[in-house]
Amino acid sequence: MSKFAGIKQSNITRIMANKKLLLGDEAIALGAIHAGLSGVYAYPGTPSTEITEFIQNNPLAQERGIHSRWSTNEKTAMEAALGMSFMGKRALVCMKHVGLNVCADPFVNSGMTGVNGGVIVLVADDPSMHSSQDEQDSRFFGKFALIPTFEPSNQQEAYDMMARAFDYSEQQKLPVLMRVTTRMAHSRAVVEYVDEPRQQNALNYDAIAANWVLLPANARKRNDVVTAQQATLEEDAANSPYNIYVEGQNHKLGIIASGIGFNYVNECFPGGSPYPILKISQYPLPKKLVRRLMDECEEILIVEEGQPFIEDIVRGVADMKNVHGKLDGTLPRTGELTPDLVKKALGMELGECFDPCADVAPRPPALCQGCGHRDVYAALNEVLKEYENPRVFGDIGCYTLGFLPPFRAIHSCVDMGASITMAKGAADAGQWPAVAIIGDSTFTHSGMTGLLDAINENANITVIISDNLTTGMTGGQDSAGTNKFEAICRGLGLSEEHLKVVVPLPKNMPEITQIIRDEINYKGTSVIIPRRECMQTLQRHLKQKKAQK
Amino acid sequence: MKTDIILCGVGGQGILSIATIIGEAAMNENLYIKQAEVHGMSQRGGDVQSNLRISSTPIHSDLIAKGSADVIISMEPMEALRYLPYLKKDGWIITSATPFVNIPNYPDMAVIEADLAKLPHVISINIEQMAKDNGVPRSANVILLGAAQKALGIEYEKLEDAIRRVFGRKGEAIVEANIKALALGREAQK
User: So what's the pLDDT on residue A245?
Assistant: First the structure.
């Protein structure tokens, strides 16, 4: 019996045991808790947010005192996780794909230090950009940092993989990158879980300073060790229970399917695939298994969610004409996979269906009714009408929707914190007015350092920190700087006269517009903080109050 | 047994609580379930949908292929039409008749009604009004679920049981309101 058949069998017996209907994110969280986790470190980011939220609300996690408070950003999260690992305990870091850019420094260097207690870096990619500014594929980061990468294909596998990935991390003394995509993170399935969760690791002093002090002399040694380890990692991937070679009768085609791409392929063959399938869920890519498929099959189709990571390796510079996927247009180069796209790539007929209804109008997301950001934009637009060529540098959050009608208020949105630094650069270039608009959580995530740059040069910019007392876009998580923003600005050296706080309400419009006008006209750095609670969290808090009565 | 369901509406209309009840009933029946949800930015008043698949045999894809949904359950009439390419040619649409107008270019309701009338199996119910008239103002979505019960392939009593388990924590009054709403939906589709 093949390994694949074995896995199918166990799925059937699972139905009777401990089971829960869980999001992929929740399965990951429960898997981590049951694997003896001691701390999760994360900054909210769709589609990864629910992992940390699940751990925050889980009774066992509370009983065990598992750390789960939100971190200020992904870099502080990754570093705290490394500290926990240094002391021998298991830590999980969660983020969305662009968060990995923010913590690239500790992430890449954790590949050099290695780990003591197991570390899993969980990164949720967002193909189709449901809630993101790009489609980057985190598997490249794993390869780049020489870090083994896991990519579950379903919720059960995600749960099971957590224990295995922690064990593997400790066995190899390396962090493990776990990559999922939106559809996996935000889809529910029945997950069976263990009866007895593993105990947490005890504190230990096994971390060797020479490995962790990346002075060039030490780092060169580590670099040789970790580089030499790659062959072992690839051999382990070839023998991984998650990388499965499924036999097929028809060798005209062989399919390589990674992560949830495997599900879409299986969906096309309800009675089982006639073609051999190589399922990939653990990297480095096991070239041995790929070569076997290539030797046995005439044509190769590669089905992977995200960028053509496997395909690029398999196709190589020889640009092999019998290899099909995203690079030759068999599958679209961008956007998430769907069962229909995979069906088409397999040359199968699509089922009969209705045409799209021409009368349906698009319904884009919008700022909530009553949201304070609305009043901020209304005031800002009112004032900026008075100036020739004003420029407003936006940032990442609900308020990015200020680009859309009716406000059409911002001219840029690049990455967390870029509003302030881009406004500064524009002012350096001679632009005036240069306005930055940034949310409270984004400001503490990555805006504070940029504001220090601006203040140090007294750059001619007006910074609006639109404070709704929460991390709104991701559903209302705690914001690291709540109640501290004036103190932070003062601490960075902002002059008291140019630090203004207002309440963004229509009735305060005259006051707010006058303050914005005055601060734009001031030749130097000023900060205006409009502060009013997010409508979503306000409603939640009112409900909680009512329930308590 | 295999049913592919598209649940849709506008962010904040509570399509996920319908999904929770169906999921609870299906899990209790030892059925396989996959339910893809939308979280994040689209929830801010935009169109939202959930692909819910239940089956007595393992389910592979989290997403439903075009032309294969057995039923579209929609909290909003125009949103029901948005996912038409996913509906089977002989599939069912169970929808609220009340438009949710938060965009300037919302089509004329007569146009939406005419588009729905062209389809073979549509149940359109003014669930908001019905919920108010019957003293269950917060259970409009469960009326829709009651109307969809036959198309789902799950026994009526199993949905009732699921409602008891899902809402049990919130007290008997809320459980009874939802049981009543479920019954109203069943009557409405007859």
Answer: 97
- What is the Cα–Cα distance from A391 to A519, expressed in whole angstroms? 15
What CATH number did the domain enclosing B61 receive? 3.40.920.10
* AA identity, residue B23: G
In three-state form (DSSP H/G/I as H, E/B as E, the rest C), the secondary structure along A152-200 is CCCHHHHHHHHHHHHHHHHHHCCCEEEEEEHHHHCEEEEEECCCCCCCC
| Per-residue model confidence (pLDDT) at position A96 | 98
d(CA B139, CA B144) in angstroms, rounded, equals 9
The reported pLDDT for the residue numbered B40 is 66
DSSP structure class, residue A412: B
Residues A420 and A483 in one domain: yes
Our count of domains for chain B comes to 1
Question: What would the two tokens of residue A225 be?
Answer: 């060790």
- Could you say which of A8, A11, A338 has the minimum Cβ distance to residue B63? A338
Q: Which residues pair with A245 in a beta bridge?
A: A278
Is the Cβ pair A189, B34 closer than 8 Å?
A: yes
Residue A496 within any structural domain of the chain = yes
User: What's the rounded Cα separation, in Å, for the pair A434 and A432?
Assistant: 5
Whether A190 and B32 lie within 8 Å, measured CB to CB: yes
Give the pLDDT confidence of A397-454 residue by residue, as tens digits: 999 999 999 999 999 999 999 999 999 999 999 999 999 999 999 999 999 999 999 9
Residues 6+ apart with CB under 8 A from A362: B47, B103
Contacts of B68 in chain A (CB under 8 A): 351
The Cβ-side half-sphere exposure at A58, using a 13 Å CA radius, reads 26
Section A487-507 average pLDDT: 98
Region A229-243 average pLDDT: 98
Q: Which domain holds residue B121?
A: 2-189
Q: Which residues of B touch A474 (CB under 8 A)?
A: 40
> Do A299 and A169 fall within a single domain?
no
Residues A330/A347, Cβ–Cβ less than 8 Å: no
pLDDT tens-digit readout, B81-121:
999 999 999 999 999 999 999 999 999 999 999 999 999 99
Instruction: Quote the number of domains for chain A.
Output: 3
- State the Cα–Cα distance between residues A346 and A248, nearest whole angstrom: 15
| The pLDDT value given to residue A13 | 41
- In this structure, the number of other CB atoms found within 10 A of the CB of residue A258 comes to 26
CA–CA gap between residue B53 and residue B176 (Å, rounded): 27
- Report the SS3 class of residue A240: coil
Chain A partners of B63 at a C-beta cutoff of 8 Å? 183, 264, 338-339
Cα-to-chain-centroid distance, residue A147: 17
- Token pair of A186 as six digits: 């935000």
pLDDT by residue (tens digit) across A275-303? 999 999 999 999 999 999 999 999 999 99
Give the range of the structural domain holding residue A408, as residue numbers without chain letter: 372-538
In a domain, A362, yes or no: no
Report the C-alpha gap between B7 and B20 in whole angstroms: 11
